[in-house]
């Protein structure tokens, strides 16, 4: 067996099976409603949850998408936080 025949091809892309097995399927990580996916791991003591679409959702409403993209916190303002101009 030659050295060339023992080589295997490698790829930089990972082939992960889809995490969501629900019917109907949860929204994908690139959907606008991605936060509606079901949690697969929930750690309130650490302030995060892993959703079945691969999104890490933080208690401050920030997100980390599976591709590494960061979504800044987008907490809605409550009446006590709204200021009006005089």
Automatic annotation (TrEMBL):
Residue ranges under compositional bias (Polar residues)? Answer: 1-15
Q: Where is the composition biased (Basic and acidic residues)?
A: 31-45
Query: Region Disordered: start and end of each range?
Result: 1-46
Top-level division of the source organism's lineage: Bacteria
Per the UniProt record, one Pfam family is DUF5999
Q: Which InterPro entries match?
A: DUF5999
Q: What is the designated name of this protein?
A: DUF5999 family protein
Lineage start: Bacteria, Bacillati, Actinomycetota, Actinomycetes, Kitasatosporales
